[in-house]
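[job 0412] stage=fold_complex status=start
inputs:
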Amino acid sequence: QLQESGPGLVKSSETLSLTCTVSRGSISRRDFYWAWIRQPPGKGLEWIGSIYESGFAYYNLSFKGRVTISVDKSKNQFSLRLNSVTAADMAVYYCARGPRGHYEFDPWGQGTLVTVS
Amino acid sequence: QSVLTQPPSASGTPGERVTISCSGGNSNIERNDVSWYQQFPGTAPKLLIYRNNQRPSGVPDRISGSKSGTAASLAVSGLRSEDEAHYYCATWDDSLSGWVFGGGTELTVL
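[job 0412] stage=fold_complex status=done
writing structure:
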């Protein structure tokens, strides 16, 4: 239902851009939020940020303003931009959905590995 | 260092019952629902438990979750080799205004 896409290789100091396409159901539904989560190789999960269909987004403060999440209702997609990447940003990036008002993520996309050179 | 603390590893023999703990605080677990995820190598996490103790359809009833105060736990009964995976807890943290995950527990079936 969710599929990440974007470059698998990003140069250090440049911007990482990924898109998540929602293939079943509408991203415009008000009863869901949409999220980006990442996992560095061999490590645990880290929430990056989330967005509602209205475009209201909120982010993990540890990213210090480097993150922007946006939604494109016409394409049933939401996107992630992470600026000024370093080697520490190398990870598998997942998109996921959650029910508004609750604290779980389901389903998840299959994930996409982003390497920083 | 994760906001939620999980043991890095757990193990059991087939048929045993194993529990995995997730310790937090009064800004996260105590105030908000906990979810649990199962992850096999090379695959995306899958929701295993939501709202502390609810199972999505398809998750067997030998899997259960509970929460008390600032801690949550996941129990796997009748352990099977197919349960070998990493398990993560997660919840919302009111102080951080964001989701937090545990560091993950690798479950081994001996």
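[job 0412] summary: Chain B is about 0% helix and 45% strand.
[job 0412] exit 0
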